Amino acid sequence: MYLNCHTYYSLRFGTFSEVDLLELAIKNNVTALALTDINNTSACLNFIRKAKEFNLKPIIGVDFRNGALQQFVGIAKNNQGFQELNGFLSEYSHQKKSIPDNAPMFKDVLVIYPFEKVLQNEKKQFKDYEFIGVSVEELKKLPFSIYKSYTDKLVIQQQVTIRNKKDFNAHRLLRAIDNNTLLSKLQTSEECRITDTMLSLEDLKKTYAEYPQIIANTEHILNVCAIDFNFGKDRVTQNQKVYLESPEADYELLVKLCEDNLHKRYAHPNDKVKARLQTELTTIRTMDFVSYFLINYDIISYSKRMGYIHVGRGSGANSIVAYIIGITDVDPIELDLYFERFINPFRASPPDFDIDFSWKDREDITQYIFNRFKNVGLLATYNTFKYRGVVRELGKVFGLPKEEIDKLSDGNYTPESLDEMSSLVLKYGQLIRGFPNHLSVHSCGVLILDKPIHYYSATDLPPKGFPTIQFDMIIAEDVGIFKFDILGQRGLAKIKEAIEIIQYNRPEWPPIDITQVETFKKDPKINDLLKRGKAIGAYYVESPAMRGLMQKLQTQDYLGLVAASSIIRPGVSGSGMKKEFIVRQRNPEKRKEANPKLLEIMPETYGIMVYQEDVLKVANQFAGLTLGEADVLRRGMSGKFRSREEFMAVEQKFLENCKEKGYADALTLEVWNQIKSFAGYAFAKGHSASYAVESYQSLYLKCYFPLEFMVAVLNNGGGFYSTEHYIHEAKMCGGIVHPPCINHSEHQNILKGKDIYLGFGYLKSLESMTIKRFLTDRNFNGPYRSLDDFIDRVVISIEQITILIRIDAFRFTNRSKTELLWESIFKLSVSKQGTAQARLFKPKHRQFNLPSLTTTFIEEAYDQIELLGFPLCSYFDLVDEAFQDNIRASDMNKHVNQNVLLYGVLVNTRFHKASNGKLLRFCTFVDKEGNYFDTVHFTKVVDTYPIHGIGVYACYGKITEEFDFCSVDIIWSKKMSLKQDPRSQ
Questions:
Q1: CA-closest candidate to residue 585, choices 555, 611, 618, 628
Q2: What is the pLDDT of residue 643?
């Protein structure tokens, strides 16, 4: 009997979830009801899915409103009606139009106009599918209106938005947040009524007892509406089912692609390759994944035609078909990738292809997908109210001063110190915490479906202009919608731009084929970079943790890097198996200590679980679980698991099977704890291998074209480290770094031979239009000959030219910055900054006799710190204290277990919470020679000797060594003072 129910997906209006709504219905003996969120269909599919568990009949629709003003409610008679509603809502959402007073011509939708709206508009004509909704509160007005005679058009429209007074309070807070107003100034027209609750079915019928026709009309609507989607075990894929005209044609194409490309991957394919290929093709066809492969192939083919670089990751990297046709660059035969991780008869969803593109190319790839395929949309994600956001929003709603809001949101208070209003903010914050706040776009999910997108959901149109559905990945997979992951990353952009820089800076060099990874893997120079941890700038292997791990493992080959990429993850690392892996890697004798059965299952990783596939193998071969049960364990670790019941049942069977097989309890527990430690963090081996491929491509460029590569790294936002540190690395590679130059620099950094000219983009105070203006003039009219020439040709204010002079962009004039600053002040009149165009006739410049003015080295450094954010000299050159006797980083291995003093410039710092809850700190420094050393600051020194920003630190501590990798356990540290800026004296 309820045709107008809201959940909290009526954003900043509703007060409970779709499951809460179903529970409320059961409590009130309601057996059928309609979910009609305001201008939103996010909850519809899950409402339908969960309704079966409650034995309720689900009906769905949309409450169409302009702000809080209800225009009408649309109820879907069937799936086609839901598509109509989604299409209509999307049209108005995309174009930011107001919802009209009257509904359009619908075929499979029932429309309910609110009684008050009908009265206001004096609506007299109603189509067959249009009705008048009368709430309990409005019922008393009905006898006094002309509509009492419209007996065949009247239905019950008791809106359900709240359950009780607490919900009503939460609702009012949400409305105040939405209207950006104080709670005391919130207009009642923006609120629901306190009576917008669900009555029991018996009470509702009693209320309308005098109007049996209204009850009958409402029951008729409930009876004629029916909607269904297949969920869970009953689901079938909703993705585009065929790529060509038929499944047979698709399969023929996939086979032909494999035949045509087989010899490109395997010059002499052996029986193992052929057998694996045939097995995969048969399985892909049997499980109806052929079109999925062909669509991914289509996307990759477009990328290659455009000259884009890609990396195919995910479980799809375990596929030889994907490798042969070029979706991935990981050879599953070489790596012995577990086929059942890629696909098995117990897995209904297609394999994951996480396809990475350059962050600069991703939008074009997405646009291609929308143009190429018919039914395309982006996947949504929900941004919820988090603690800090809730406190800030409610603080404003209650009118608290900013200082008080800051105190509450940062947690800098004690309960007894709070006044009544602040206490209310925290109390009511709990009511709406976790509610969806607004919809956003999933980071990478693209949907390519068989039916129109609006068959499943309405769409929004975010700023990038791609229609985005209104539900998330979990619901999508439940109904059989599987996303294509199209990701953007900076690592590929660095590779692509480095190749472009090589082409103009080293024109004598032949074109580079970056796909020749097999050659890179065997290059001793590249592998030596890995072994020595000299991979700054290279994708995934540049962090201090990876740098240290490479040195401990003595990684010097592809398979070693693949393993390292996975064992550094928290799952393996947290279980203690990372250390054991290093021991067995470095000492072959220790490998014999592994359990023989586990060593037989995982010989490559010395009997240690490193990859997701290892969990499948161990569960299947060690514990005797079926592949389907093993996959439950894998999914249970992925973080996407909806229920733990299935996982716990498999856990029980795992333990029972091990007991039956006669394993010692200690061994069973050890193996099970390893499996549990993977939760949420395990990498698929193919995933690690894909990362390793990109790492080798980066390392090839870093090894043979270090300057070109480092400039590309800088131009694409760097990576793990700061811009300043990548500039330091460029210097270590032989680069000569110059501040921005008016005649050489561009907006980004540019390399000329070994000279790196920093880009004008680093000058945060320099306006982009100013940069565009003088670069355009230089491109058309040639280099600037003098300051006078620049002033004649470029419209610029005194403030903007001062920035250029202070960064020494006019150093080609061979005059000091101080002279140029004075001269620019004399020559640029105040009115100049308002001039919209360059002068037609060049003025005759007066020459001024200025005293000899010089700029000191210290002033130069402080100008750079102020304008660039860092100096181009070494911080060691700015230290204003005497250095004590110290050692260099390269000598640390000679002083193991000794207390020593090192000086270093801070590169990176991070905290880590110990098992006792206290903080430790890990830092990375570079010494005066540019070599790295790492420090550990245990809890007793973390607060006593804090690390405050970049600079030179004296680090005194004990040298410790683990697997030939040295670090310093800090006893005390001190930041060295710098020479004072002479201009501030």
A1: 555
A2: 53
Distance CA 912, CA 917 (A): 9
pLDDT of 640 > 60? The answer is: no
Residue 672: predicted pLDDT? 86
Q: How far apart are CA 326 and CA 301, in angstroms?
A: 8
Q: Rounded to an integer, what distance in angstroms lies between the CA atom of residue 644 and that of residue 684? A: 22
303: β partners: none
User: Over pLDDT 70: what percentage of the chain?
Assistant: 93
Please report how many Cα atoms fall inside a 13 Å half-sphere around the Cα of residue 608, on the Cβ side.
26
Taken in order 948, 954, 959, 963, is the CA torsion positive or negative? positive
Provide the residue type at 94 as one letter: H
The larger pLDDT score, comparing residue 701 to residue 516, is at 701
The Cα angle at residue 59 between residues 55 and 64, in degrees rounded to 5:
150
Which tokens sit at 877?
């050159």
CB 541 within 8 A of CB 530: yes
What residue has token string 């959402």?
A: 93
Give the orientation angle of helix 247-265 with respect to helix 290-305, to 10 degrees. Answer: 50
Residue 866: half-sphere exposure toward Cβ, Cα within 13 Å: 13
- Helix, coil or strand: residue 489: strand
Q: What contacts 576, CB < 8 A, 6 or more positions away? A: none
Structure tokens at 690: 């894909």
User: What amino acid is encoded at 389 in this protein?
Assistant: G
Handedness of CA 71, 72, 76, 81 (dihedral sign): negative
Q: Higher model confidence: residue 526 or residue 338?
A: 526
Confidence of residue 540 (pLDDT cuts 50, 70, 90): confident
d(C-alpha 631, C-alpha 339), whole Å: 12
State the residue for tokens 């980004």. Answer: 748
Give residue 378's identity as a one-letter amino acid code. Answer: L
CA distance 83 to 689: 42
For 265-288, the pLDDT digits (tens) are: 999 999 999 999 999 999 899 988
Contact predicate 318/337, CB 8 Å: yes
CB contact at 8 A, 916 and 887: no
> Regarding predicted confidence, which is higher, 465 or 873?
873
For the residues of 10-78, what is the DSSP string, one character each? STTT--S-HHHHHHHHHHTT--EEEEEEET--TTHHHHHHHHTTTT-EEEEEEEEEETTEEEEEEEESS
pLDDT of residue 637: 62
Query: Which residue in the block uniquely carries the two structure tokens 């006078």?
Result: 788
Q: How confident is the model at residue 831 (pLDDT cuts 50, 70, 90)?
A: very low
Give CA angle at 686 (278, 274), nearest 5°.
20
Tens-digit pLDDT profile for residues 383-426: 999 988 899 999 999 999 988 898 888 887 888 888 888 888 89
Q: How far apart are CA 793 and CA 780, in angstroms?
A: 11
Q: Which residues pair with 2 in a beta bridge?
A: 33
As beta bridge partners, residue 752 has 755
Place of tokens 């991703």: 362
Contacts with 622 (C-beta within 8 Å, 6 or more apart), sequence order: 597, 598, 601, 658, 671
What is the rounded CA–CA span in Å between residue 584 and residue 591? 5
What confidence score (pLDDT) does residue 212 get? 95
Residue 640, classified by CB atoms within 10 Å of its CB into exposed (0-12), middle (13-18) or buried (19+), is exposed
464 CB-near residues (< 8 Å, 6+ apart) = 363, 441
Q: Which residues pair with 919 in a beta bridge?
A: 913
Percent of the chain surpassing pLDDT 90: 67
Please write the tens of the pLDDT for every residue from 908-964.
999 988 777 888 999 999 999 999 999 999 999 998 999 988 999 999 999 999 999
Distances (CA, A) of 823 to 741, 819, 861: 19, 6, 22
Rounded Cα–Cα distance for residues 256 and 324 (Å)? 11
Q: For residue 757, what are the β-bridge partners?
A: 738, 750
Give the tokens for residue 516.
């020749």
